[in-house]
Design brief:
Layout: H1 4-54, H2 59-69, H3 74-113, H4 126-180, H5 186-217, E1 226-229, H6 230-240, H7 242-246, E2 251-255, E3 261-264, H8 266-283, E4 289-297, E5 300-308, H9 314-317, H10 333-336, H11 341-351, E6 355-361, E7 364-372
Parallel strand pairs: 2-4
Antiparallel strand pairs: 1-3, 4-5, 5-7, 6-7
Length: 376
Amino acid sequence: MKPKGSDEYLAFQSKLIRRACINVAVSVAVVVALYLLVWKQRMGDWIVWLLENVFHMSHQNAFYYYSDHFRGNKELFFAAAILLVFTVLLWRIFRWVTGYFSEVNQGIESLLAEDGKQIRLSPEMLPFERKLNTVKRTLAERKAETVLAEQRKDELVMYLAHDIRTPLTSVIGYLDLLEEEPDAPAEQRSKRVHIALEKAYRLEDMINEFFEITRYNSQQITLTKETIDLYYLLVQLSDELSPVFALRGNHVTLHLAEDLTVPGDAGKLARVFSNILKNAAAYSYPNTEITVSAETAEGKVFIRFQNQGEDIPAEDLSALFDKFYRVDKARSSDTGGTGLGLAIAKEIVTLHGGTIEAQSKNHVITFTVCLPGANL
């Protein structure tokens, strides 16, 4: 089946051909009519009448003049008439075609104007009108994306400055105290060293995350795929993160088959699930359940993570997986992470050929990871 656009272009071409053929047919008909109805019938009488009344020649002299100069060269005059008719034909076709070029040119000017108005062309130019409007929408979307990218870049600089400065300030502060009070009690010195070291480790983790997301974006990450026991992986992660859940009285419940497997890089998928579970722990209501379920459908594996918490605004859902994005703008990097966890999760899932999305309704937040379920 041919695409609709192809049919529209064929219709436009057919109209061009039909119009050209009609013009040629009309021109030929005019030439034949001139020859049969005019030249072969009354043309001589008209020329003689013209010579008599305009140039004031006698009838005999006019007739001889016509015989000497017109009748003997009637083929030449007829050829001139044909040339004139087809010149008019070419002029009409040229003017008609250039009219379409003028419309396209106006459409291009409308693209450059960025006025938001729809481009309108002749009905037969509908395929070109659609193409130009599509280009106009694409340019508008790209401009909006560029503006958004600039805004995100500014936010990135702000977040980097804030997130790195916080632990760095702590490190510098405690080191200054150690330098200013060299004779401080050993217990106090040990406490300050411990805090400074803890903040330095935090700073190192943040920098590693910054480099990691850059590597994912530049496609420098390679996957080592194997068949993963999904149930065992999620049980293991739940056990490892149990202290994190226990801080606010949350717990994890698994609802999936024990023999469910998925092809992928175990270490990197563990990072995905861990980031989602940590996010759920940070934003769940205290003393609530976090459920993890999985099912297969149409050759794919769907893993869902659900927790109870404040609804996420619709405008924030699409931005959850953006770098350095936090729903709670007031949450600092010490309590809310760098804002890279979900961005890294999305990059890993994308590398696996899957998708990740978030939904929020009636105080239930759902993260769904879809992965190809084909056997390796």
